[in-house]
Amino acid sequence: MQEPLSERYEPGAIEPVVQAHWDDDKVFKVREDPEREKFYCLCMFPYPSGRLHMGHVRNYTIGDVIARYQRMQGKNVLQPMGWDAFGLPAENAAIENNVPPAQWTRSNIEYMRGQLKRLGFAYDWDRELATCDPDYYRWEQWFFGRLYEKGLVYRATAVVNWDPVDQTVLANEQVIDGCGWRSGAPVERREIPQWFLRITAYADELLDELDRMDDWPDAVRTMQRNWIGRSEGLSIRFALNDASVGGLEELEVFTTRPDTLLGATYMAVAPEHPLALACAENDTALGAFVEECRHQSTSEAVIEKLEKRGMALPVTVRHPLTSEALPVWVANFVLMSYGTGAVMSVPAHDQRDWEFARKYDLAIVPVIADAEGNAPDVTSGAHTERGRTINSGKFDGLDFAAAFDAIATALEREGRAERRVQYRLRDWLVSRQRYWGCPIPVVYDNEGNMQPEAADRLPVTLPEDVAWEGVASPLRSMPDFTATTLADGSPARRETDTFDTFFESSWYFSRFCCADNADGMVDERVDYWMPVDIYIGGIEHAVLHLLYARFFHKAMRDAGLVKSDEPFKRLLTQGMVCKETYFRETAQGRKQYFNPAEVDVETDDKGRVIAARARSDGQPVTIGPVEKMSKSKNNGVDPQALIDRYGADTVRLYTMFAAPPDQSLEWSDSAVEGAFRFLKSLWRLTHEHVSVGPVDALDVTALDDALKDLRRHIHETIVKVSDDVSRRYKFNTAIAAVMELVNHLSRTPADNAAARAVRQEGLDTVVLLLAPIVPHAAHVLWQALGHDEALTDARWPVADENALVREAIELVVQVNGRKRAVVQVAADADKAACEQAALADDNVARFTEGKTVRKIIVVPGKLVNIVVQE
RNA sequence: GCCGGGAUGGCGGAACUGGUAGACGCGCCAGACUCAAAAUCUGGUAUCCGAAAGGAUGUGGGGGUUCGAUUCCCCCUCCCGGUACCA
C-alpha cells in the first residue's frame, strides 16, 4: 500500500520512519558471499569525544555516499562503524569532573551512536566495536606476544617531557611554551625505559610499495616517502685527538655528502651526547648550557625553530683525510635520537651549518664548484647543489658519484668508515605512561626480568573502576592490578604502561570483517573483505596513522593472519571543516572568542561583511580569520541543531555540495538554507507531477526539439554524475549538475502526455542520482513516483546513447587568443567547415579585416583560434 | 626549520588532458504575490567604459614557455596540515 505524497517536505516526519525501516529490516547487514563482488567502504572511526562535530558529519557522509553508490552498482557492500575509544581526553575529563574514563567514554559512545543513526548512515551495526572493550584489545595483546617472538619488540630508553610538579609524563600537546599545561612548571627532558616496535625492519617494503599504490593521493605517498627518508651515505669515525674523554675515543657521524668531507670544519654533538656530558662535568659554563638544553621540548617543530646555539667543547677530532684538528661543539639543534647524536658540519655546503659557522665565526671552506666550475660564492649563504670537487687535494675534479666513491673507498681501506643505508624513520615507541589505554601484556619477576604474559592468561584487563587522585596514571598505585604471579606461582609485577592508541587503530579494519570471533584475532572472513576498497579520513593522518596501519598489516600478514600486502586499496583524504572566528582582546591581551551563533553580522548593500556585534551586549567584536572548527576558537557549529532544524538529508546535501571532499570546507548557515530550499522545490515538483495521475509510456519518436533537448540533458546528467561520483569523487559538481537538470525540468511545461513522460524519466533519474546523498527523501519520492522496489535495491541509471546524440554544436571563435564570437556548426563539421564558419562571423571579421591571417588553429568540437598579423 | 597542500567575484566553489574564467549555490539589488511579513516566483549581479552592441581589465605578487596559461616552468608572499606522547 502506498500513501499519497504529502504536499510539504517535512524531513522531521519522514526521516525517522525511513530509518526505522532500514533498522528493522537490517537492510545494511552484510554476509560474505563469494558469488558477489565485494566492496569494503571504510571511514576512519571516531574518537568518542562527546558529540559529533562537523568533521565527522562530513567524513561519514562522504563514506555513505560511496557505499550507497556501490550498492546501486550491485556490489556486496560492507560499511562498518566503531569507536577509537582509548585516549587522553577521557583522562582529562576524569581529572576535571571526577568521572571514570570508562564511564565517560561509554556514555559518549551511546550519545554519538544515536547521532550517527539520526544521520541515516548505511552501517552494518552488528559489527560495531569499541577498542576499550577487552574482547577487542585482548587480541592486540596476543599479537604483541607474536611480535615479541619474532624479535620485532624491544625495550630501550627514550626521552620524554617530564612535569616535575605533577610527577608525570606530558604529551607534546600538553607542553605550552616549555611548561606543563596544568602545573605551569618548566618541563624537563627525562630518559625512561620504553617499548618499541621494529617498524624500521619494514622500511624498505613500506617505501617500495608506495610506488605501486596508484589509488592513493600523490601528496600522501610523497609525505610517507619523505618520512621514511631512505638515504645512502657514509658512516665515518673521527678519532679524538685527546686521549679518551668520558670513555670515548672516537666520534661517529653519518653523512649523505661524503663528497664534501674536505669542507668539514667542525663537529657538532647533541647536549645529551656522552662527550658533551663528560666535558660538562668539569666546566660550569658548559654544564649550565647542557642543563639549559635539558629543558628544551622533545618536539621537533619546537626544536627546529629554536635559535641555533652552541658552545665549544675542550676537545678536537682528527680529520680522517687531512689529520687537521677540527673543533667539536655542543649544539641545541642536534638530536640524540637521530642517528649517532653527532654530525660533521660543512658550512660551505649546508645552510644550517653555514648559519652556525657565521654566528660563531667558524671556518667556511668551499669544496664543491658552482655550475660554471668556479669556487662558489659562500658569503651570503651555503652552496647546496651538487657539483665537481675543488680544494680537495687528490679528490679534486670529481662529480658527486665519483667523489662519493673515491672518498668512501679511501676511508674504508683505513677502516674509518662504512657505506650505509639510513632511514629517517625511527622505530615506533608504543608505550605510554597513561591509564586509559590497553595494558601492555608484560610481567617482571623479582629480579626485574621481564616476559610477555602467556597467551592463555589474556586479556590483561584494565581495571575500569578507578579513583583518580592527582594527574598521574592510577594504575601504579593499584596493587590488585600490579601484583601477579608467574606461571610457576612465584610473585611478579605487571607492566603499568599502556599502548599508544595508534596500536588499536592499526588493525580495527581487519577486525570489522569478523568482529564476533571469540577464538582468534581474525578468521578467514578477513580474506573475503580485505583490503579495504576505499578508506576515507582526514589528511592530518597522512603519515602517522596510515604508516603504522600499513606496517601492522604487513606484520599480521607475516604472522599468517591476513593475505593482502596493503590494507587500503584506495585512499580519499578529506579536508577540514572551517568557520570564521570572532573575538575581543581582554585587558591581559588574551583573546576571548565568541561563537558565530552568538554574533550578528552587518553587511553593506553588496552583502560585504563590514562589522560584527555580540548578541549578548550589542558591542562590536573583531572578525578573525576562517579557521578549523575547534573548542579553543569557539567557532564550532553543532550538527545536532542543524539536523533538528533541517533534517539529516539537508545537512548531508550541504556538506557534499559546499566543497569537494579533499578541500577544506567553509561552513555557511545560509548556504544550508539553500540546500533545504532545493529539496523543497524537488519535492514540490514531484508532488505536482504525481498528483496529476499516471503517466503514459515514453515514445522517444514523438518528441519535439525542446523535449529532445530536455531528454538529452537527462542522459548527459547521468553521464556527468556517474563520472563525478565514481571516478572523480566530486560530489559538489554532481549535485550542481542535478540542480541544473531540476531547473530545466521545472522550466519545461508538462502539459501533454509526451512532456509528462519525459518529466517522469527526469524525476526518476534525479531521485536515483541523489539517492546516495539524500537517501530519506529519495526513498519517499521513489515510492511516490510509482516504484514498488525499495530504493536501496534499485540500480544506478545508465545513459541512453541515442538520447546523447547532438546535431549542432557551439564553436568558440578567437582572434589572437581572444574570444570574439560563438558560432553554430554541424556536430560532424570538418576543419575547413569550422574555419569557414568562424571567418564568416561579423564580429570576427571586424578583427581580421585588413590583416594577414598567419595561422588558424582548430580544436575539433571546441574552438577556432585565428592568428593574424597585428 | 623541514615535508605536504592551498590562494579564482561580496561568499562557498566551477573550469577534469594547455582551449569560452566565474557553472551551481549563497548573499545582495529590483520586481511580482501579500493589509503586512514569512514562504514562493521572475529578472539582474566580476571590475571599469558604454543606452546597447561591444570593448578593456581580471584567477595571491613578479618573470617565462605557448597561437592560447587559473592549468606548465622559475622566483616570492601569505594561509593551512604534519613534524613521531592530540587523535
Protein traits:
870 residues; alpha+beta; seven-stranded mixed sheet; six-stranded mixed sheet; 25 helices; 35 strands; 34% helix; globular; RNA-binding
How would you explain this protein's 3D organization?
- This protein has 870 residues and is an alpha+beta fold.
- The strands form 9 sheets. Strands 10, 11, 12, 13, 14, 15 and 16 form a 7-stranded mixed sheet that branches.
- A hairpin with a 2-residue loop joins strand 32 (808-815) and strand 33.
- Helix 17 (639-646) packs across helix 18 (648-657).
- The longest helix is centred in the last third of the chain and has 24 residues, at 705-728.
- The radius of gyration is 34 Å and the shape is globular.
- The termini are far apart.
- It binds one RNA strand of 87 nucleotides through helix 7, helix 10, strand 17, strand 30 and strand 31.
Number of strands: 35
Range of helix content = 25-40%
Our estimate of the beta-strand percent is: 15-25%
User: For the terminal residues, how far apart are their CA atoms?
Assistant: 74 Å
Structural category: alpha+beta
What's the number of helices? Answer: 25
Radius of gyration: 34 Å
User: What is the overall silhouette?
Assistant: globular
Task: Detail the poorly predicted runs.
Answer: none
Biggest β-sheet description: 7 strands, mixed
Oligomeric state, counting identical vs distinct chains: single chain
The pLDDT mean sits at: 92
